[in-house]
């Protein structure tokens, strides 16, 4: 593998600049297959696969992955932002040029930004993104947080999917004292997230005060304490950094208190984030605090409610955005003492994916809880099949950043919400596991039993991996995994070095408007990638986890030999396998497969051979 860095200084008097990347690229690079992290929606950056770089749209990119036309090489280009300037990539297909796209966040400050480029053979692509991220972190002095937080080890509840339904009395979806208490399930949970709708806001979706809305029926302190009295350990609330969806209401007393003034939502005739998103009447400006005020705002409101954590949505723009974000991070550190109490939601921007948020500099130390995809069960076509792709491809990058990845809530029932399809994915990340069953739906106890377990203390915890699932590198550039006909599955892996094994998950992500099957098999490259090694030195076993999808049975894999293990998944089905080293003990071959009755069998498992017992 090779790596190079391009530096550029944004002078103090410049607000933005576009600089061509000085790269010696092959002549046919515009024909290379491309994965790009582009803004597909106003609040979400998602991965898109393009048949060639030349078909990339006029959108900025937070990471480019390119595969050569012969499939032998992979190139990664990663732009690096700072607190003072955002940097992403601009792909000019007409001029056949790649650019660093630099925009100022802090006025009149000279700052240096970077673009890191790495190249590897396809067989070694598994280490490529990690390599460019580590190089970027070294350039900016970022820190890696190795200490593990246990804040999210238990099962939690999120109210969004539960409350956003027509069966509730008007106004639908808004939390009240009674309906919140009715959402506490008859099984142990540790966290409870009060999602959108609890705040005092106007009809135009702007914040009026820091108090709850009038229909909540009780003071916020009483609401939270009542939830805790039911056995919940920590209660959190949903917030937007800019106030509410459309910032602060111009008639709010907060306007004077925080020296708020209007800022344009978007420059005239400019697409928002590279996509067409027309503004409605009255949405052309947002009232936000001055950059000097945010550091002192909001740091006492949540503790006064006795809230234990928050989900923060939608940080705004430029200097104000930067100041509000830094102020929030300082307040979180001061009030709660750690960064693991904030779920960064709808926070997809250069600061998080390419700068201080993800690279761990210019902010309090620690890993951030980071939502990496759009919502569970949105009102979109292909919402379940796309969901898997959003998350396991996003983690190609985000798994290497200073984040704990959040795959969002899910529901255990009914079947049309594809419960096991989602539950399996949630077990493959150390992030929050939040259930959002509707009150009239019966919880699937079998699913919960497969997701959780009691520990020595008697508490119920989620059985989940310490690192997040990520798309198998040897399959990154497959563009036939979401077709309308039978084809391969989307596969992701979690390496568990302490157990000398891995978990590979497979999902049928073909169009849910058809009955297409995912028909696939585990390849030797999949085994190598899942174990993060170039070749096998020992015998391994592939053991099916017996989910609804047909991935049962087992196969033995010898070094250099291709395994014989097929996967057949119908619509809405997923499957999984455990890959485990075969040990020679006392003349017998032994493999440790973990807790096969759980979705993450190898989670927290440590395997070591202390002595050969053949003569014992």
From TrEMBL:
User: Mind telling me which InterPro entries this protein's record contains?
Assistant: GH (IPR017853), Glycosyl_hydrolases_36 (IPR008811)
UniProt keywords (A-Z) are: Carbohydrate metabolism
Q: Tell me its family.
A: Belongs to the glycosyl hydrolases 36 family.
Protein name as it appears in the record:
Alpha-galactosidase
Q: Can you name the source organism?
A: Papiliotrema laurentii
